[in-house]
Queue: 2 jobs
Job 1
Amino acid sequence: MSVLTDAHFFMFNRYLYIMASHPIGIFDSGYGGLTVFRSIAALLPQYDYLYLGDNARAPYGNRSFETVYEYTLECVEWFFRMGCPLVILACNTASAKALRTIQEQDLPRIAPDKRVLGVIRPTAEMIGSYTDTNSVGVLGTKGTISSGSYEIEISKFFPEVTVYPLACPMWVPLVEYGEYKSEGADFFVGKYLDQLMANAPDIDTILLACTHYPLLADKIKKHLPEGVKVVSQGPIVADSLADYLQRHPETELQLTKTGDMRFYTTDDTTDFDNHASVFFGERVQSAHLRVGKD
Ligand code: DGL
């Protein structure tokens, strides 16, 4: 006689969920994507969502192209197995280093009817409308900045805008480890902003091109001359997703709409739950996902 254990029950529940639910997948290397998810959920609360933070392997910002691509693809494939017809890479580093290869090489092979979108293009489409001086500072991880993606994309929509990119490699660790309110954070905020503004004093708009950085926005604003706008991506990406879903009924019609939100992390769930609320604005309860090869 077989005995049904909690593990069986959990597996069965998961099976039912995958069969019945077609959520929008939202991915980040860690917590940062929650700042984007927060805006998306506020604007489009009717959809089901599945969030995954690859906290066990974060930060991605200093990792090689190959590694970011490999990790991102592994997570995207998991979203597909979980029934997501659409996945948003709510991570600039993954958008810069993995998105194009996934869209052009992997999707036609593994899931031609599914879609993966990033955060760089929707942001580039909008950022030129914020600046009066046509000078925009773009702050991101080493990976995002060295990819040159923002200069390329912004020049397509706003050729008159000069982009001043700067990598701020210390900012993600400060945020990821909960030090974003500390004096150490003041030091590192000042260090990068002083460098940027000394190089280009006519900058009137600063784009936070990393989804972790909104947690440092208050300190960043305080450090900048009055009148310099600090732009976070959440609302821009949410508007762009709403527009995308309107223009793509073939994807929109596949999505289930019960307002369900589920959270997964590749690291410790208690840590994730304790930190996530600061990014997401409400308490969350996560489940664990094991990644990587055995
Ligand atoms: N939130 C990711 C981004 O937008 C960050 C990065 C990281 O893991 O370094 O780039």
Job 2
Amino acid sequence: MLKVLKFGGTSVGTLERIQNVAKIIKNIRDDGHDIIAVVSAMSGETNKLIEYANTFSSNPSNKEMDMLLSSGERVTSALLSIALNEDGYKTTSMSGREVGIFTTNEHTNARIESIDTSNMQESIAQGNIIIVAGFQGVSVNTSRVTTLGRGGSDLSAVAIAGAIAADICEIYTDVDGIYTTDPRIEPKAKKMDKISYDEMLELASLGAKVLQNRSVEMAKKLNVNLVSRSSFTPEVEGTLITKEENIMEAPIVSGIALDKNQIRVGLYKVSDKPGIAASIFQTLANSNINVDMIVQTIAVDGKADLDFTISTGDLEKTQKAMETFKDDVEKIDYNEAVCKVSIVGVGMKSHTGVASKAFLAMANENINIRIISTSEIKISMIIDEKYAELAVRSLHDVYELDK
Ligand code: ASP
Ligand code: MG
């Protein structure tokens, strides 16, 4: 098999841990597989470099930042290659340029345009294990080094796996997979064996520290089988993230996600006239504010209430944007003490009674649901933040996710 392995910052955080990663790679190699290993910078390294730059300038050039930040990953790739070499394994480290990752010119947040795999193919054919410096590419236009945005080495790994048609892309972090919910909230949470791309994207909050969302989207697009597993317990099989068709018996509900990073914006008595919603949400979009849930009540006397949620970081921008609508609205309030709990599962497409079960669970705990929204594979509820953990535990319980 051709395996792409990706080791995150914590997995290569010390020299000892780099040695541990070398051991994992050796074992996989001894089993007869071809390997492309993509590495992050040692943990904390990227932040340290940003701090260094900020001591000289509060607004350093993005082009220089890419030159600076891409160095972190290069250090790890070279060290890992040296460690493996020392033990008699044939290896070569490669920068983004050598790997053939061509990107747009948006420094510090470049998008991958294409990957020329010929260099990698040749090197594998010569018997090398390739150790790739993640998170970086080269601008098609200028040939300057670019980086792919924070957490971008996941993206490097998935894109390479897709381009070279690897059999699997294993993402190693310090957790051993994706759980049915956050084990710190519900100790009975279980590691899932398999989950679909769409479920993983909806459960982003559970995977946030494990997998960069952009990389899951790319895995879906390129049909890359992803595995989330731990470099600290490599003997434990992780969670496979794959296409829905590959999951034989999907549970009705796969997991419960919690997002505390929500603010509910209530617009009371909005004039009920054509175009008002369009102009409100256009204004928000123009200010780059991401709106999550939206509900409008039935109009009474030519006025309707409009509620939507935004993420915590966007509060000030939203308040400013809403000034425009002072005269169209009787009152605007911002409730920060809310959270969103979501029940996710592809199986709910073909089952009835999934939503009522959730609402009953909330009723039994005396939790008031403020906003509900549903999609084919998700039911989300906005509730008071003080009930967040209780809600997660009771939902985990009613859908028997601990079984
Ligand atoms: N080192 C980069 C970061 O910290 C990329 C990565 O680790 O994926 O964002
Ligand atoms: Mg990362």
